[in-house]
Amino acid sequence: MDTISIAIQKSGRLSEKSLELIRSCGIDFYADSRVLKASASGFPMDFLFVRDDDIPQYVADGVADAGIVGRNEYDESGIELEVVRDLKFASCRLSIAVPRGFSYDGLKSLEGKRIATSYPRILSRILRENGVNAEPVVVSGSVEITVEVGIADAIADLVSTGTTLKMNGLEEAECIYRSSAVMIARRDMPQEKREILDRLLERIDAVMLARHKKYILFNLPSDKLDEAAAIIGGMKSPTVTPLMDRGWVSVQSAVDEGRFWAVFENLRALGAEGILVMNIEKMTE
Ligand code: PRT
Ligand code: ZN
Description:
Blueprint: E1 4-9, H1 15-24, E2 28-29, E3 37-41, E4 45-50, H2 55-61, E5 66-70, H3 71-77, E6 82-86, E7 92-99, E8 114-117, H4 120-129, E9 135-138, E10 154-159, H5 163-167, E11 170-179, E12 181-185, H6 191-211, E13 213-221, H7 225-232, E14 239-242, E15 248-256, H8 260-270, E16 273-279
Helix pairs in contact: 7-8
The chain binds phosphoribosyl ATP and zinc ion.
Phosphoribosyl ATP binds near residues 13, 14, 159, 160 and 162.
């Protein structure tokens, strides 16, 4: 039987979340940081543990069939693959940062300046699209010290909390690009492998959808049902079960996590009792 091989970052910001996502898809494996390869049990998949920078090339060469990498790394590679899913973790932004005292007023302020970055391809594209002539200074790390040491006037670097910039006396001037982890795949995958990848993606979708929902179960006077449905919102048909106590029903539904507390408080105010909230492990639309 065919297997697919998937390239995962060996050690870094993407590693743990990538493995956790795969494990929550019911795919088990033994990952040892000293080995480069591993096989899954119960699913036709092999793993290749490599540096994130190498993942797009490995997928392009067919060394791996798919991989998990930051969108920034994929776009910077300039390699054309298929982005099959945005996995929505390891989110960050590529921002222009300037030293204090630099009067920044849009990308035009960078005209003629030297901008240090590890993402010259993405930066150049954005400068070009905005008609700005600036000189990218390519560095592979410690971008934030380049201004202080005098090799650049500004930088374009990845930011998540902004602490690193502040610690280095820089101010975030403008976000020019957003990134998160994506799954990339070969375009020319044989049919058998494509089917395995589709099975994996179906599991990933179920896990990702469930992560943003809570399952809620409560008792309610039946004459309040319409109002409860309006509070919960966005659901086709809550499950309603009559209770022994006439005039009361038990209601169950999935609720978006972001709206959960508002829903909870409004249901309480409406007279809901015995509210039970559960995490959902997997779900489909
Ligand atoms: O060894 P390998 O080459 O595999 O790893 P790496 O060192 O190249 O990458 P790694 O593990 O640091 O990052 C992997 C991916 O995580 C990146 O390509 C991004 O897609 C994503 N990511 C998310 C980040 C950040 N957040 C992030 N904050 N990558 C880097 N940073 C760095 C940033 O460069 C800066 O130095 O963190 C610093 C800023 O962080 P804050 O929180 O202070 O703003
Ligand atoms: Zn890297």
